[in-house]
Amino acid sequence: MKIGVMLFGCSVLLASAVASAEPVILSSGWTADFSPSIAEGANRSTAVFQLRGSYRVSLPSKGDVFFDTTCVGIETDTTVGKDVTAKGTGRCEMKDKDGDKLLSAIDTVYDGITFKLQGGTGKWKAATGQLVSKEVFTSQADTRWTGFGSGKGEITVSK
């Protein structure tokens, strides 16, 4: 009997320590600076980018969390006729008001970013999940783009 009670108590403790995924709403405003493109062939070119912006992540358990965000990466454009497709990869560091960082790998396309959350520091140390943002551009110069993003996803933050 004592062993059964102890096992039940341990399972309750373990269950309470396991965090579940929370739905997330994401919104942002940002500026991305691009290096000059380097040709990879007749219809492909690659550029390095740095994105800086403010991101709001809304979580049921924490409310609105605001991040100062920096992303760096590389993006390749492929032109077929008049159509241009873009695809890239990179890394992001999102710092909250306490200085804790949420880290992610990113995949980019012309009008979107997928954040694959990979932990961080402080309260975000064990964070996992994925956020997908659709981007709308307010200006597009050769080497500087500005815009807004909105999206959703899931995040798991350990207690």
Helical/strand content category? mainly beta
Percent helix among the residues?
10-25%
Count up the helices.
1
- What would the principal axes of the Cα set say about the shape? elongated
In which order are the strands of the major sheet placed? 1-3-4-5-6-7-8-9
CATH class placement: Mainly Beta
Overview of this protein structure:
The structure is a single chain. This protein is mainly beta and 159 residues long. Helices cover 10% and strands 67% of the residues. The chain has a single domain, classed as Beta Barrel (AOC barrel-like), CATH 2.40.480. The protein has one helix and nine strands, in the order H-E-E-E-E-E-E-E-E-E. The chain has an eight-stranded antiparallel beta barrel.
Topology diagram in text:
Elements: H1 2-17, E1 22-34, E2 38-39, E3 44-59, E4 63-80, E5 83-95, E6 101-109, E7 112-120, E8 128-140, E9 144-156
Antiparallel strand pairs: 1-3, 1-9, 2-3, 3-4, 4-5, 5-6, 6-7, 7-8, 8-9
Labels describing this entry:
1 helix, 159 residues, 8-stranded antiparallel β-barrel, 9 strands, mainly beta
Short description:
This protein is mainly beta and 159 residues long.
